[in-house]
Design goal:
6 helices; 111 residues; 3-stranded antiparallel β-sheet; homodimer; 3 strands; 13% strand
Chain lengths: 111, 111
């Protein structure tokens, strides 16, 4: 039987699979702390939809939220991305190999 | 308005968010070509469930399948992982910063 459970990786990759969530993280990478309303402004979706995306990011440990009075501020918490990158890096030689094969094919065609 | 659509990244991260699919890719990284029945053997799920996972991986461009007679063989196709890694690498300095902050906190506690 294969041992293959890793809830952190599941959550990280699932959180990153949505373009709105990736764009929210990109915005948070530009400023140390951003309020939810500021974060939501550039997106063509409702504030409740953005709040749900922020819940997913928070559950995955990719953001932290702090409430001051009536304002909720979000911060990027990139730690879980490191494990995701480590997982992907194990496959690096395979994508290099694919590229090598492609280059070889193109060169053969040119001869 | 934020321009943030990238279907390839959506599919790659979604495909990688499932532990069975990651384990299938890990198996394919050990052998150049593996039949579907061999691939399915170590998993405690049904063959149709594995076939569905392979569909998701194939739609994401992470595997290729070739039929010879009655056997379908799968191969790893790691290309899409490169784009996913490139996306994650843009955040590398943020996870280093988190680690630096953690180390600083631990050192402060020790003083």
């Amino acid at each position: 039987m294969v041992k293959y459970s890793n809830v952190t990786l599941d959550r990280t990759f699932a959180a990153l699979s949505d373009p709105t969530r990736r764009a929210l993280l990109a915005q948070l990478s530009l400023n140390e702390s951003v309020s939810v309303s500021e974060l939501a402004r550039p997106f063509p979706v409702s504030l409740p939809a953005i709040m749900k995306h922020l819940d997913v990011l928070s559950d995955a440990g990719l953001i932290t939220r702090a409430k001051t009075g009536r304002t909720v501020a979000c911060r990027l918490s990139a730690g879980p991305m490191e494990e995701a990158t480590d997982w992907l890096n194990k496959y690096q030689r395979f994508w290099s190999e694919s590229l090598d094969r492609l280059v070889a094919m193109v060169e053969e065609d040119e001869e």
